[in-house]
Amino acid sequence: MLQILFSKSKNIATLDDAALIAEYKRTDDNKYIGELFKRYAHLVLGVCMKYLKSHDEAQDMTMVVFEKLLTDLKKHEVEHFKSWLYMVSKNQCLMLLRKQKGKETVDIQENKVEEDENESVENSLVAHLDDVDLKEVKLQQLEEGITKLNKEQKECVELFYLQSKSYVEVAEITGYDLNQVKSYIQNGKRNLKIYLEKKDV
Fold first, then answer.
1. CA distance 60 to 117
2. How far, in Å, are 3, 51, 114, 115 from residue 86 at the CA level?
3. Which of 24, 96, 110, 116 is surrounded by the most beta carbons within 10 Å?
4. Model confidence pLDDT, tens digit, residues 35-62
5. CA angle at 196 for the pair 126 and 47, rounded to the nearest 5°
6. Three-state secondary structure call for residue 184
7. What is the CA radius of gyration of the chain?
8. Alpha carbon of 19 to those of 25, 33, 41, 78: distances in Å?
């Protein structure tokens, strides 16, 4: 019996992210979040260091993010966990900075570059939709908005913003020509803005 339990415990490390999330939802067992923590704590810490500039604050925020997962993963359907986790971490940092003594939040356009064919976007979708004040938007509203886009817009938006692909790379992956890709991305961004404004973001 002990051997079986040990075997099951050991097998957690072989599960992919989606399977860990599914098992957590099914069993409510925090050990599955613990495995995700082992895999991605360094990523979250890195994001927090980038925005908070303090190792102590970044460590504290890393714990806050993973505590948040305990409730958020039960409420949301997450398809791309790593990208989603990055966005959650970034949002939490921006909200903290906003609360600190009237201090200006991080300039989310600091890495903005000219939109040309070879652009590779480093910022997340949250950063690029700053005109809707996404520093405060609830992540679930953004996710819901993306699901409302048509197939072409959804595909291009996810590749361009969440996976940081360039226009050219999106065109190669999807088979759409460059002008179509740019059009789908711009229209998708506009539709997301409209959707979020309707949500009174």
1. 39
2. 37, 12, 24, 23
3. 24
4. 999 999 999 999 899 889 888 999 999 9
5. 15
6. helix
7. 18
8. 10, 11, 18, 11
